[in-house]
Write a structure and sequence with these properties.
With about 650 residues, this protein is of the alpha+beta class. Helices cover about 45% and strands about 25% of the residues. It is elongated. The termini are far apart.
Length: about 650
């Protein structure tokens, strides 16, 4: 607004235009008298508690004393002196926010344009915060992130990316990979960048890099970035170090392969040779397995080399030059202490110190070992040998990260050796047991048959008259001897099957006759308990092709068991056919078997009544022998039972013999 109303239409139009301007406009003469303020400037004055009408026409420094000696006064006086426009930013105490003022001098006046910077400052602050946040994210991630131009020069790179080339982001900017990596690798990287820029398609590659002798694996994603006009500006990439992930995957696969090899056979010499072959070249260039012998020395058990042509040299090293017993390092020391040895770098001085003689030294140099890892084969506190892993021509270097997988392989190998030894000992003990049972059963059976024979002769009065009382006692002796003979036959059958000596003699058998024969053998035992033994007659034509003696023994075993554990009710024997099979069932109304014991009844020496004062005797082999005989004949035995409700045992056999039986 002016001190006096504008009468000139052109001036009025100009004032109207200025009032529509978003900036605060003020006009001063060269005495710094305020001549004009627009609508926005008038609002600023009112916000400061001043009346625009009272201020216009007065010296600005008088009515606005806070402007004295400020950027505002300095800028006005500089413009008055030089007649050159200038601008400045300041935090306005009158408005309480940042403003930008442009001072424009003319021949007769000075015009100022003041703009509120609150929005711009807020935008700039948000941008600065976003940039700081992005900077923090990029420089705190373990992935390498970079931006390059079309020539492959780095435009930006985070801390992790710069560290991968042993530099800092500031020093890397402007350089290419050729300044940091071998030419062959740099050329490969550049070719992939050119392909990405040409196709515009983001790629993801797994790349292997050797850093300080260590193999590193990176998953690298490369894409294109575009300039404002839509042209290709270069490439952007993210490289993730997946070395540990790949090592874990390799270790898991290695352990799985080794586990399968170690489980395939109890011949640990063969399996450890397989393990040595699995280890090379997955973990080392060559592998040697040394086993502690009875004399306390180490003998070679297995050796493997990734290069078959160098296998001869590897074998020669281990065979001609075994470890010295008193060596302070190497396999002998590892076995003695039970602690692993890691030698990341093998120098020529170390080879000279380890060599037995000049010929040995020459052979060691031929093998070209560069890095060595030796781990003890220990299981349950006992060290049985050592595994030596060597890196040579591959250039790989062992580190602490390789110890866990090597030690786990060695531990599993030691367990395989221990298990093989335990199995061999158990097999020997089992053979001795079977031979003892067979021998003792045979020796017992011979005099027992004689006892039964002589009792029969006495009972028949061959040697003289026998009184009724004597005959009754002889019958009891014969029954006890018969029972003892049955027990011995069970032990004999069990020992024959344990040793794999049981033979099968097949013939055509009438089912009805075998049921009657088995029942007749058990009927006296049932009669003594006043227990009905019921036979359900099968169809007369029902026949089975099997081993008669073994079938009868199975049925007798089941009937004997049923009578033993039944005090009242009955025992029922039956047979039926179902297609190509025949089922022989023995059902009783005895004490039954609890569900928790159903799986145990067929185990050797297991009995329903486990305590020492059980009511019935026996070896505990009857059901075990019965199931083994049934399976030997191509069938099986199953049981259904409930406590207090009795049991039903069912033998299922094929009608005809199975192929190969």
């Amino acid at each position: 607004m002016r001190a006096e109303p504008a009468t000139d239409p052109l001036v009025a139009t100009l004032i109207e235009s200025l009032d529509a301007h978003p900036d605060a406009v003020a006009v001063f003469d060269y005495e710094l008298t305020l001549r004009y303020v627009d609508r926005v400037a008038a609002e600023h004055l009112r916000a400061a508690g001043l009346d625009p009408q009272a201020v216009v026409g007065k010296n600005a420094l008088d009515v606005l004393p806070h402007l004295r000696d400020s950027e505002w006064e300095h800028a006005l006086r500089e413009a008055m002196r030089t007649r050159v426009p200038c601008s400045f930013e300041r935090h306005s105490t009158m408005l309480g926010r940042w403003t930008e003022t442009r001072v424009v001098p003319t021949a007769s006046a000075i015009t100022t344009y003041t703009r509120d910077l609150a929005t711009r400052r807020e935008t700039e602050q948000r941008a600065e915060e976003s940039e700081a946040l992005l900077h923090a994210i990029l420089n705190n991630t373990i992935d390498s992130i970079y931006v390059k131009d079309t020539e492959g020069r780095y435009l930006a790179i985070n801390n992790a990316g710069a560290a991968s080339v042993h530099s800092t982001p500031r020093l890397v900017i402007g350089h290419t990979n050729f300044d940091y990596s071998p030419p062959e690798l740099s050329a490969k990287i550049r070719a992939k960048e050119l392909l990405v820029m040409k196709s515009g398609v983001t790629t993801r590659d797994e790349e292997h890099v050797k850093e300080n002798g260590q193999d590193r694996v990176y998953l690298i994603a490369r894409g294109v970035w575009y300039t404002a006009d839509g042209t290709v500006g270069g490439t952007v990439g993210v490289a993730t170090n997946i070395t540990d992930r790949r090592r874990r995957e390799r270790d898991a696969a290695l352990l799985a392969d080794a586990g399968r090899a170690l489980a395939e056979s109890l011949d640990f010499r063969t399996t450890l040779n397989t393990v040595a072959q699995i280890v090379t070249p997955a973990l080392a260039d060559w592998c040697s397995v040394l086993l502690l012998n009875a004399m306390g020395g180490l003998e070679r058990l297995a050796v493997s080399h990734a290069d078959p042509e160098k296998m001869r040299s590897a074998r020669e090293v281990t065979e001609r030059y075994p470890p010295l017993p008193d060596a302070l390092s190497g396999p002998q020391n590892v076995v003695r202490t039970g602690k692993s040895e890691l030698h990341p770098q093998i120098t020529d001085d170390m080879l000279i110190a380890a060599a037995h003689d000049q010929e040995h030294l020459a052979l060691l140099r031929t093998v070209g070992m560069r890095s060595v890892l030796i781990v003890p084969m220990t299981a349950h506190g006992r060290t049985v040998g050592a595994i030596t892993l060597i890196c040579a021509e591959s250039g790989r270097v062992f580190s602490e990260a390789d110890l866990p997988i090597a030690e786990e392989l060695a531990r599993r190998s030691a367990l395989a050796i221990e298990n093989a030894e335990l199995f061999q000992a158990a097999a020997a003990a089992n053979r001795a047991k079977s031979e003892f049972l067979a021998s003792m059963s045979h020796e017992l059976r011979t005099p027992l048959n004689a006892i039964i024979g002589y009792v029969g002769l006495l009972s028949e009065g061959i040697t003289g008259p026998v009184t009724p009382g004597q005959r009754e006692q002889l019958l009891r002796v014969r029954a006890s001897a018969g029972h003892l003979l049955g027990l011995i036959d069970e032990v004999l059958s069990f020992s024959r099957m344990e040793a794999g000596h049981e033979r099968v003699s097949l013939q055509d058998v009438a089912v009805s006759s075998v049921l009657e024969e088995a029942a007749s053998l058990v009927r006296p035992m049932a009669a003594a308990k006043k227990l009905p033994l019921v036979i359900m007659p099968p169809p007369p034509e029902l026949r089975v092709h099997t081993d008669l003696l073994k079938l009868r023994q199975m049925i007798v075993n089941l009937l004997t068991n049923a009578v033993k554990f039944t005090d009242s009710g009955s025992v029922t024997l039956s047979a039926d056919s179902d297609g190509d099979t025949i089922q022989f069932s023995v059902a009783d109304t005895g004490i039954g078997i609890s569900p928790t014991h159903l799986r145990s009844v067929f185990e050797p020496f297991w009995q329903v009544e486990q305590n020492a004062s059980r009511r019935v005797g026996g070896t505990g082999l009857g059901l075990s022998v019965t199931r083994r005989l049934a399976r030997l004949l191509g069938g099986d035995v199953e049981v259904q039972s409930a406590p207090g409700e009795g049991s039903t045992f069912v033998i299922t056999l094929p009608r005809a013999p199975l192929p190969g039986r």
